[in-house]
Amino acid sequence: MSSRYLVRFDDLCPTMNWDVWNRVERAMLSRDVRPLLAVVPDNQDPHLTVQPARADFWEQVRMWQRRGWTIALHGYQHRYVNQNSGIIGRNAYSEFAGLSEREQEQKIEAGLRIFAREGVRADAWVAPAHSFDHTTLTVLARHGITNISDGYALRPYADGEGRVWTPQQIGRFIDMPGGVWTVCMHFNSWTDADIVSFETSLQRYQGRIIRFADAVREGETRKASWADSALATSLRTVRRVRSVIACA
Length: 248
Prior knowledge:
Elements: E1 4-12, H1 18-30, E2 36-39, H2 57-66, E3 70-73, H3 101-117, E4 124-125, H4 134-142, E5 147-149, E6 157-158, E7 164-166, E8 180-185, H5 192-205, H6 212-219, H7 226-247
């Protein structure tokens, strides 16, 4: 089977880069691309304050969801409180990993209350900095969130606790021989060249871009395989080597 791709954008909040986003949104609409959007319920991260807040932000989120775009709970306030890399081991800082169950529950409940108040449904979990732990997963399941966009695998799979993991492996479109690949993008700092590159990628890969719901359906009937484990080991090794080189 040829490779398929999911489009994911992180860090959507009232103070994001709306100039860039408006062009990105038009590009996706023109090709009927239905992305996964990670929405921060109550942004307190100054790095995500790029432009003045739009008063109609939540109306925009409701509109995206009505279009069939997937809305994910992207943490709570996007504030990193420790240096715990969690179970993914990708970044050594976290809003959740390492905190007590009570602390994590308070954050997740607060984020979901904002979603509920604004009439938005959380169909997936996207952790800030890819950092969360087994306690996070327990709390999320208690609140009905069992679709996780993270981890390393060739394709989506279900774990023994009934969660469906849709892996997130790459940050740009790359030709792959097979599998399902989530392309995670952070648009706040994009230049004109980045937007043009994204538009070109949508045109090139349009026939192979799927929705998050399609990936979840596939993952519901599949268990992780030895190939998934091999890919995870390879990608983690590459990331460790890059980290060592960067610190040298």
